[in-house]
Amino acid sequence: MPRPILASLSIAALRHNLTVVRTVTRPERGSAPRVWAVVKAAAYGHGMQTAAAGFESADGMALLDFDDAVRLREAGWRGPVLMLEGAFERADVHVARAHALGLVVHRKDQIAWLRETQGAPIDVYLKMNTGMNRLGVPLARARQAHAELSAGDCGVTSLTLMTHFARADEPDGAAEQMERFDAATSDLPGARSLANSAAVFSCPRSHRDWVRPGIALYGSSPFADRSAASLGLRAAMTLASELIAVQSLQAGERVGYGGSFTAPGPMRIGIVACGYADGYPRHASTGTPVVVGGVRTRTVGRVSMDMLAVDLTALPHAVCGSTVELWGEQVSVDEVAQAAGTIGYELLCAVAPRVPRRIV
Ligand SMILES: *Cc1c(COP(=O)(O)O)cnc(C)c1O
Questions:
Q1: Largest Cα–Cα distance in the chain?
Q2: Measuring from each residue's beta carbon to the nearest atom of ligand 1, which residues come in under 6 Å?
Q3: Which among 64, 213, 301, 318 is least buried, having the fewest CB atoms inside 10 angstroms?
Q4: Three-state SS at 129
């Protein structure tokens, strides 16, 4: 028998979350923005195949890796594709032209590569640095870059202006960057794309022509203080396993490496076939929520490489083989992330290759 751990991936949840994003971004009048489904990092750990099925009705797929993009094309995706970090070398521009991949341009030499390559014209997103200081041309150079890309010799079909927010998850956190973006680009022609998941929910003025949600589509919250459920989102990934042992403890007995948990009285604990080598965070401390046989309880002691322990005090009927949900519909990945001092994004992306995946 294979080890009982499994990541189940719900196509229905992905579709539902895409609908939520469309509903949230539909304006009272005028046309709704189009939606780039962000599928980088193997669709936030959900797998490209899962994403292709769940986001069939998205207006485009945005990612980073050229091999993944070519595989998306080979799998039959004919809609727009956007390469979020653009070309890493000149050869990537050839690949982009051959497979109709849109390119972000954030750096001077990427403009030169467009000029130096022949082939089909492609869509370009000119990325501006409005204050995050990660990728993007400086605002002072935006006008010149726009002019260069608009000249016929770059082989560009359409030019969209883009920026990325550093703090859209904070109250009014997108405002300053948006103001800078608008001031520098107000008279330049072209569509606009600004909003990540957080801005989709927090900043309607940023929606413009194309939104770029990632995390929300997978059913995890971009906010520290708002749950995915409160945003109407459904978890697309359920990480589940089983109890493979049960221990009865006396008061004062300790659990796991370092003996970091001490039983306050007689109690039963269950051992779950899931550890940090599966992608469960080792920093999740005693008290991290977990569901055993449909009942919410907590982890106890340190997470090992292949196992972790759970409190069965409230679960007299739990036995070896009882199902355990590490995260998913009953325990949000965001709750587990918070207990481990990280964010849902990291946990979803870090589910280990050894964990089997099943699309449901
Ligand atoms: C990852 C990414 C997104 C999506 O961000 P979420 O916070 O997951 O919604 C959007 N735009 C760019 C440029 C990105 O790199």
A1: 78
A2: 38, 40, 84, 164, 196-197, 212-215, 222
A3: 64
A4: strand
